[in-house]
Amino acid sequence: MPLVTPLSPDHDTETKQLAEFFNETLGFCPNSVLTMQHRPAISKAFINLNKAVMANEGRVTSSFKRMIAWVSSNATGCRYCQAHAIRAAERYGAEQEQLDNIWEYRTHPAFSEAERAALDFSLAASQVPNAVDGEIKERLYKYWNEGEIVEMLGVISLFGYLNRWNDSMGTSIEEGAVESGEQYLGKHGWNKGKHI
C-alpha cells in the first residue's frame, strides 16, 4: 500500500500535458508522477527535468541512458525504478542481448569497454558513500567527453531522486513495468517488493 495515493491523471491539466512524454518512454504515466501531483509544481518541475536529462544529445543514447538508470536503481535497491528503467531501455531499442544480460554488464561481451566504464560510473555514483574516484574518472575520460559525462550524471542524479521517492512512497507499480521487470530481471530475483 503506497504511503500517498496517486491522483487521477486528469488532476492537473499542465501535468497531464507534460506527462504525455511518458507514453513514449513507458507506455503509461507513472504512478510516481501521479503522486507528485499533490503538489503540481513538483510534478511539472520533475517532468521538465526528466525531459532535459533524457534528451538524446548524441552518443549517450536514449536506450543507454535507461541502462545507466537501471544500474543506479539496482545499486539503491529500488525495484520500481529497476523495472521502469529496463522497460524504457527496451522501448528505446536496447539490444536484446544487453537487456537479457544487464546483470553481467562487467563481463558479458554484449557490452563494450566504454559502456562498462559508464555503467561502473553509475554504480559508483549511486553508492553511499559515493565511490567515484580517480580510476573511474580516468576510465570515463578514455571513452567519453565532458558533456557526455554530464548527461550520464544527470541520469544518475535523476534516478537518485526517483529511487528515494518511489521506495519511500512504496509507489504502486504499473502492470507494464511489472511485465518488463519479470521478463528481464526476474531470473535474478526481481519482484514487486513493496510496490504492489
Automatic annotation (TrEMBL):
Keyword list, A-Z: Oxidoreductase, Peroxidase
Family matches, as InterPro entries: AhpD-like, CMD-like
Keyword Cytoplasm: no
GO terms of molecular function: peroxiredoxin activity
Residues in Carboxymuconolactone decarboxylase-like domain copies: 40-120
Coiled-coil blocks: none
Keyword Nucleotide-binding applies: no
UniProt protein name: Peroxidase
Organism whose genome encodes this protein: Aequorivita aquimaris
